[in-house]
Amino acid sequence: MARFAVVGAGAWGTALACHLARLEHAVTMWAYEPEVAEEITTRHANSVYLAGVSLPETIRAATDARQVVAGAEVVIFVPPSSHLRGVSALAAPGVPRNAVVVVATKGIEERTLKLMSMVLEETMPGLDAERLAFLSGPTFAREVAAGLPTDVVVASKGMTAARKVQDLVHSATLRTYTSDDPVRLQVGGAIKNVMAVATGACDGLRFGMNARAALITRGLAEMTRLGVALGAEPLTFLGLAGVGDLVLTCTGDLSRNRTLGLRVAEGVDPAAYLAQQRSVAEGFSTAAAGFGLAQKLGVDMPITEQVYHVLHRGRPLLESVRQLLERGYKEELQGIRG
Fold first, then answer.
1. What is the set of domains in the chain, with CATH numbers?
2. pLDDT above 80 (res 338)
3. 13: which of 78, 163, 165, 176 fits an S-S bond (Cβ 3.0–4.6 Å)?
4. What is the 3-state secondary structure of the chain?
5. Per-residue pLDDT tens over the stretch 38-52
6. What is the pLDDT of residues 123-169, one digit of tens each?
7. 164 catalytic, yes or no?
8. Which pLDDT score is estimated for 337?
9. Is 286 within 8 Å of 338 (Cβ atoms)?
10. Sheet with strand 174-179: strands edge to edge
11. Marked catalytic residue, from 106, 114, 164, 192
12. d(CA 36, CA 62)
């Protein structure tokens, strides 16, 4: 049994806490809202972010980040990507020097265009590669919380941290694979949300299954091109945190990002829609960050570009569709292979 701190009490953080507690690890959670922390501890529920799920009674939650991480052997950060910088800086002074740190947040910081690993380099500068890992894969929080069969991947440089985490979290219902390519895992986990928005809009416009399959496949090409530009190996995007997470998020009805795309196709203002939601649809901010990063690196990402313009610049959806469909033809693997 190990001592885990889960920093973030949204749906995904709560689902991870459920899994860890079922493995009989000691789990403490950090929640921003006092009422969420109180409900998790006393009523064994999180009605705000994971309604209808009974949590293991051993899980405890608090609002003091330093207190939550103190004494933990493994600290898992699961806040929205826009809050990882602030939350990790808040918790950093309390993280034990020998603790393994896992990032389960999926996104790119919009203001700086930095991956989550780059953010932690600034907020936790003493954290070396042997203690830092990233967890991703095709995971709907509600299914993980329910104990349904799921596969994930944990990545770290040199594999040391990844193997430590694998040993602690692997089970028959959460099969855990390892990877030595954390860049691929972060890029895949971020860009798949943008593609889910696009696929939701495609389905909302009733463009058919052919268009959906093409959009997902070309989305895989975009995330691979961006990953390669950042130093990832292209073949690794065929794994769980690449094509696996992409397919799930683009096609599953539990996907908040796909739902955002469906609402956009109905004519709903995306910013107004998201303002009414408690849970974050990461694809909204990642569209801006992904497009900005693509421009910075000179990477061709036409789907991401159009999602950005629709969500953030008010471009009519059908105008973006027209621009995508009327692009010139090219080689399928352009920008992916040498």
1. 3-180 (3.40.50.720), 183-325 (1.10.1040.10)
2. no
3. 78
4. CCEEEEECCCHHHHHHHHHHHHCCCEEEEECCCHHHHHHHHHHCCCCCCCCCCCCCCCCEEECCHHHHHCCCCEEEECCCHHHHHHHHHHHHHHCCCCCEEEECCCCEECCCCEEHHHHHHHHCCCCCHHHEEEEECCCCHHHHHCCCCEEEEEECCCCHHHHHHHHHHCCCCEEEEEECCHHHHHHHHHHHHHHHHHHHHHHHCCCCHHHHHHHHHHHHHHHHHHHHHCCCCHHHHHCHHHHHHHHHHHHCCCCHHHHHHHHHHCCCCHHHHHHCCCCCCCHHHHHHHHHHHHHHHCCCCHHHHHHHHHHHCCCCHHHHHHHHHCCCCCCCCCCCCC
5. 999 999 999 999 999
6. 999 899 899 999 999 999 999 999 999 999 999 999 999 999 999 99
7. no
8. 64
9. no
10. 60-62, 26-30, 3-7, 74-77, 100-103, 132-136, 150-155, 174-179
11. 192
12. 9
pTM above 0.85, yes or no: yes
Evaluate if residue 100 carries a pLDDT over 80: yes
pLDDT tens sequence across 79-96: 999 999 999 999 999 999
Q: What is the largest CA-CA distance in the chain?
A: 59
